[in-house]
Amino acid sequence: MHEINQLRTVNWQLRGAATIILSVSLLAPALAQQGPGSIRLSPEDEGRGLGGPQHNFDFLAPGASGDNYQTAGFFGQKLRPYLAGNADALAHLDEYRRQKTFFLIDRLVAVGSFGLYGQQILAHGDRVYFNSTQQVAIGVFATSLLATVFINRNTNSHLQRAVKTFNHDVAHNGTWQRLQPAAIGFAAAPTGQPLLSLRWALR
C-alpha cells in the first residue's frame, strides 16, 4: 500500500508538470502578438483578406510602440532584417516577393499591350481599331487582367504568414526558455515518499 501511495504521488506530480507545459503551449500564440520581441502589422494590414489591396504593408518593429509604423517595402525587403535567422518566416517572405514580382511583370505586360493597341490606331494613316495586331494586344491585355486576379489572391497572406511564423517562434522560444525547469529529478520527502523535483533558475 505504501508503494502504491508513492506511485500516486509521482503520477500527480508528473501530471502537474505536463499541465504547466501544455498551458505554456496554448498561451504561446496569444503571447506572440503582445511580446516585446514580436512584429505587429497595422490593424488595417492585419485584416487584409484574399485578393485584398496590394499596397505596401506597415509594421511595428520589435520593441517599437505607438504609431511608429514603418513600411515593409514593395517586396517586403525592409521586413527581412527582422526575420533573419528564422528560415520558415523567410520562406514565406520569399513567396511574397515572388508574387509581387509576378504582379509587377503582369502590370508591365498590361501597360505594354494597351500602349501597343493605341499605337496601332494611327499607325497606317487612317484610324484602325481592330486589326490583327490590335486583336493580339486585346487578347494579351485580357489575359493579363485575368492573371492579376490569381496572382493577387494569396499575395498578402504570404507576408502575414511570415510575421505570424516569426511571432509564434519568438513567443514559444522566449516563454519556454523563461518557464522551463533548469533541472528535473527526484527527491525524497521527510516521510520517505519520492517527489518530483523541478528547479528553476532566475533569468
From TrEMBL:
> Does the entry feature the keyword Signal, yes or no?
yes
Protein's UniProt name: DUF5683 domain-containing protein
For this UniProt entry, which residues form the secretion signal? 1-32
Which UniProt key words apply to this protein?
Answer: Signal
